[in-house]
Each structure stands twice: as C-alpha cells, then as structure tokens.
Known about the structure:
By secondary structure, the protein is an alpha/beta fold. It contains 14 helices and 18 strands. Helix 6 links the parallel strand 6 and strand 7 (179-183).
Amino acid sequence: MKYVVQFRKRYMIIFVMLIGLFCGYAQEYKSNDTTVQQPNIVLIYADDLGIGLLGHEGQKIIKTPHIDQLAREGMRFTQAYSNMLCAPARASLITGLHDSHEQGFEITPGTLYKKISTGELSQAQIENMVNSALTPIPDNQLFLGQVAQEAGYKTVQIGKLEWGFSTTDYQMKRHGWDYYYGYLDHVRAHGFYPPFLFEKGKLVHIEGNTLANCGKSGEPEIPENYKERKLMDGKVQYSQDLFMNKALNFIGTNKNRPFFLYFPTQLPHGPVAIPKVHEDFLNDDRLTPIEKEYASMVKMLDDNVGQIMQRLKELKIDDNTLIIFTADNGHEIYYAQEGRVEKPYSNIKTGKRFDDVEHKYYSHLSGDVFDGNGGRAGMKRSNLQGGIQVPLIIKCPVKIEAGRTSHKLIANYDILATVAELVGFSGPVNTDGISFYNELIGQNLGEEHEFVVYSSYTGPTLITNEGWKIRTDLDKDVFELFYLPNDFKEAKDLSKEHPQKLQELKSQLLDACEGDFRNGHFRNNGSILKVTKAGK
C-alpha cells in the first residue's frame, strides 16, 4: 500500500554548545589522558529485528554472540523506542523529528523502480517524477548524514536506502551522503536478489539476477510459495553479501580519516530468503524448514556485525570507532504456516483474531516459537511495546565504559542530535530530538525528554520519563494507561484507577499531535502522495 506522511517544520530547538570536544575534521579530543583522533561512527540499522531475537535479551533458539559481545563491551539501553513501521522510523532517524505532527514525512510509492525492469520507465523518468512530486527541501532542513559531512566526515550509506518508499540521487546527496550503494526503493528491498542496484547515482546491473521482483517470494508457507522460494533461477547474487563487501571495503579505504558508515541492512525483514540454512539449525527439531531459514537470516545479521567488528580490529581503529546497533521497529513474523503461527495474527488455539485491545497479541498465544518481541504485547505497526521498543547498543572503548546499562528514555529521533554533538557540528540542531552524549560518557547532565511520542496504525502513543504510557485506538475511542516499570506486557489498563494521570497524559499527547490525535494515526496523516509521469 502507499502512504504519505508529509514533512513537519521543527518546533523544539536544541542549541548544541560545544566546548572543544570533537570540533573539525583534523581536531582531536582527550580521554583518560590519551589524545585520540575524532571518532569514526558505524550505525547498523536492522530491519524488523524484534528485541527478543537477541541472546542477551533472552532469545533461547538463535545465538547472537557478536551482538551480545557488543552489549558486553558497550552500553545497552533498556528504554529505547522507534516508530512502528519502516518508513516513518527511517524518516525520524534521518531528520530528528517525530511522526505525529500535523505535517510529517512525505512517503512516495514503493514500486516505481521496478518499472525499469519491466521497461515502462527509465531511471531518469522515475527520478524526475519523484523529485517533482516532493516538496522542495528547505535550505535550513538538517539531516543525519549532513551533520557528519559538514563536520569533515566521509559519509556513506549502504543497503536499504533512506526512508522510502522511493527516493532519488538528489535526495541522497541532499541528505548528506558522499557515497551510497543499494536499493532506492523499499518494496524492491523485500527481495534479496536484485537485478540492479544504485551506486552514487548510477544504475548497476547485478550479473545473474534477472527477476523484476528481486526474488521476493510469497507468504504464508504453502507448497506453492515454498517451491517459488527454493527455485533459484535468476537468483545468483544475494544482496546482503554485496552490501557487506561494500561496507568492509569502505572501512578499509577510509581508515585514515573520520568516517560515518550508515548501514541499513535488509535483515531480517522478509519474505524469508537465505542462500543456505545456518549449521546451527540444520538438525533443530524445534523448527519448521521456513523457521530455520528465518533464524539463519538473524544469524547472518549477527555474523555481519562480527565481520564489521573484526575489520575495525584488524585495522586497529576499533578503539576510535563508535558503533551504534539498533532497529527500525518491532518484530514481524515472516514464517507463518497453518497450524503453527498464522497471519492475520490469531490465537493459535482458538483461532480468534487479536485486536490489541480486548485480545492483545502475545507470542505464547500466537505460537511464535522465537518469542521475537520478548514477551511484549503487539507487533510491528502497533503502538504496543512489541511494535515500538527496540534494541539499542552503543560501543566506543575510549569513551564508553564497558558493560553499562542505561535506563534513560531514548527516541530514535535523538540520534541526529547525539551524532551532531559527537562529531562537532557547528550549527544549531533544530529537531525534536535531544542529544544523549552525556549519558554515553557517564555524565548525568543535560536535557532529558519529559516524554517521547509515536504514531501507529491505530493512533498515537506517549511514554513518559517516569514510565507511564498512554496508547490509543482512535477508531474504538480507546485510551489505555499503563505503568511500564510494573507492567511491561501492558496487561493491566490503569485508566480507571488513575483518571487524573490519564487526563494529564491525554493533554500532553494532544499537544504533541498539535491539537488533533489523528495526526498520530498513520493512515490518516495526510493523503497519498501521487506521482505521475508529469511529476504532479
């Protein structure tokens, strides 16, 4: 489906006052009496990675030793949030803005670049259509790549590019990327065998990959879809392998200068596709064949994290590289199969559909063998914890004490402000985000969120610094209240017990949505951005 959330002008203004730390390309900073160069940054952005899929978060079946090592050697955040869906999550990350303003993020149709394979349109025609349809970017609009680029960093983005669903070379460059390689649209990124990708504005053909849909197979697991997935004609080069080669090469060729590598991987977004089942699962009788393949996708993501960490170590730049590992949204099931776990999500014993109000989704009720949301209610697209609470791990040996756990309230739209302070960006950062740099270095100073806010398919939600949460289902006129420190599963609605708190948070949420709760209803925030051959 095609959705639009339009750009929002920034309201919250954060003036980042820098006192010499991380200023300029060649500048240095001091830590523990040791002078080191301005730190490199690697941001690994997993796709649909439920927090419960990681070993250190309680995963029982899939071992994730490299990501677990990252948590042991770095800092783990227990109250990190992101949007409930791919496109707004990536837009919030890149702009530092939340997605419940009256105007938000323009999101284009996601099937445009497929028309190159079908011969309907050329790359130039598609880019002209998209650029003409989008609102011109204001000169003072700030982006994640831009803050590093203007601070002297070499910036690169590799993988599932930008917020989608279709973007252009102009957008990529304006957002601050010196180099990029990957998909310019998110629908094609649902397949792992693309016939072409894009590299710094140029279309690059991938030899041996011939399928217009990039090898995307069907769901759920039925004989026809299994056969389609296993048929490898036209599927030679796996996109994640291509991306890893580019990422590792970039690190090597830029080892002697500050760099910012943004790596939005496809993994483990489905439909399921993997060159081979990982040896950990070959003889695991707990899993169906498709569950083994899905587990192998998570395992490949962990292996890729290990490869990046190893490359940094080999080049002896690991001590001066800050690694951020997080995800765009909560868990999603791509291994549905009759009698096992079913979509639309239903109670596997009773067959009753989950409505996420009277009957909330839980893994043990759905039959999810992986418990991908770690026991939380809800899934991707939901404003329940399973849809918006994400893993966040940050490692930088020189500045961040190993093994720390932070309970600070963090939004994905804080990352831009944090990176800006880290790299020494000299301009104002006018976003909804707040830098948590001081938290990283162990100083309990600086501004904090009173609350964070996100949209969803049913309406907005707000989580306070104290742990209170109000969530909505606007179509059902539902406003639920939870106290997360005592109820992370959102099992007990406290709205009747605490009517004053409900009204307080309801008022705050309405203000955050600029006077209309529907601004936090994803399907009602704006109309579909129409892209025509005339670009209108």
